[in-house]
């Protein structure tokens, strides 16, 4: 019973921790997300905030070293249309491993959202940190407020490949390594293994994915298709008009050769997108076609 001489006391450890984290982050000055800045960070776990044009947009956690986690974001953001890496900055805190069990990033997300709603940390609810959803989700509509819909993958990203005749398989491996977004392609079938042994004469100068696609598909059997979805690109031996596709290239097998179709993607209603619980390996590809590729 609460009386004049007796009262309840409820201790909120999580609120106290969130308050202390926010207070420690507050005086830190955001630094541009650059390769040089990341090299200066210690290889320790921690939490961090991302800012876009000076506005806080994302709270993240790194169980792996902070530079590795942030470098993944640096790579991803550089390969997007509609956003400049020059407008992105960060602050971070190194945290003890014991603190990780308390999910400090979740506490901060809850605090910032209580203060500003979705606008408190908008990228935490628009799919920014999500991984490649895998083949089964390619047919799903992307929400209109999804990070990939707002900032689609740059299909004109410059690639520097070894010039001269190379197998399709070798080219795909190099492209996958150099792109700042995911390229997922069919690997497991016998037909694809044979197709990937076809030779392509690769230009010695820089070439974009858009330019390279026609050279690759011209060597693959008819009905093969390269599809540009908002945030990644896929290559499979099947013609599909996926709802969220921005463009696709097809080998018609006719005199027209490789045909390109572009369109406005079909997007779903705006929604909040839950991030995966395991944030240790951001943007790690969930590639179900990961059998060894015979190139």
List the SSEs and their pairings.
Blueprint: H1 13-25, E1 31-32, H2 35-39, E2 46-52, E3 55-62, H3 66-78, E4 88-94, H4 97-100, H5 104-116, E5 142-143, H6 147-150, E6 158-159, E7 164-167, H7 168-178, E8 183-185, H8 190-195, E9 199-202, E10 207-208, H9 209-217, E11 225-228, E12 233-236, E13 247-251, E14 258-262, E15 267-268
Parallel strand pairs: 5-15, 8-12
Antiparallel strand pairs: 1-4, 2-3, 2-4, 6-10, 7-9, 11-12, 11-13, 13-14
- Give the biggest sheet: 5 strands, mixed
The global form is elongated
Q: Enumerate the strands of the largest sheet in spatial order, edge to edge or round the barrel.
A: 8-12-11-13-14
Per DSSP, the total helix count is 9
Share of residues in strands: 15-25%
Care to describe what's here?
This protein is α+β, with helices and mostly antiparallel strands and 295 residues long. The protein contains nine helices and 15 strands. A five-stranded mixed β-sheet has the order 8-12-11-13-14, covered by helices on one side. Strands 1-4-2-3 form a four-stranded antiparallel β-sheet. The N and C termini lie far apart (76 Å). 32% of the residues are buried.
What's the quick description here?
This protein has 295 residues and is an alpha+beta fold. It is built from nine helices and 15 strands.
């Amino acid at each position: 019973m609460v009386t004049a001489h007796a009262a309840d006391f409820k201790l909120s450890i999580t609120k106290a921790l969130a308050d202390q984290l926010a207070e420690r982050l507050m005086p830190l000055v955001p630094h541009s997300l650059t390769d040089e800045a990341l090299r200066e960070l210690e290889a320790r776990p921690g939490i961090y905030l991302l800012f876009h044009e000076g506005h806080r947009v994302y709270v993240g956690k790194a169980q792996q070293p902070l530079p590795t986690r942030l470098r993944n974001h640096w790579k991803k953001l550089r390969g997007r249309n509609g956003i400049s890496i020059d407008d992105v900055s960060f602050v971070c805190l190194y945290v003890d491993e014991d603190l990780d069990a308390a999910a400090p990033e979740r506490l901060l997300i809850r605090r910032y959202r209580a203060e500003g709603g979705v606008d408190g940390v908008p990228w935490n609810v628009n799919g920014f940190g999500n991984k490649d959803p895998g083949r089964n989700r390619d047919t799903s509509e992307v929400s209109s407020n999804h990070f990939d819909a707002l900032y689609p993958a740059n299909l004109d990203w410059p690639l520097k490949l070894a010039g001269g005749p190379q197998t399709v398989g070798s080219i795909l491996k190099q492209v996958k390594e150099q792109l700042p977004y995911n390229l997922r392609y069919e690997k497991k079938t016998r037909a694809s293994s044979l197709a990937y042994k076809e030779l392509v004469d690769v230009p010695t100068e820089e070439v974009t994915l858009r330019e390279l696609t026609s050279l690759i598909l011209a060597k693959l059997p008819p009905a093969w298709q390269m599809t540009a979805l908002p945030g990644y690109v896929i290559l499979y031996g099947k013609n599909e008009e996926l709802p969220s596709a921005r463009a696709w290239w097809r080998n018609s097998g006719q005199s027209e050769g490789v045909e390109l179709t572009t369109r406005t993607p079909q997007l779903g209603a705006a929604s909040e997108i839950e991030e995966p619980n395991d944030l240790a390996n951001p943007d790690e590809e969930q590639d179900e076609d990961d059998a060894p590729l015979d190139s």
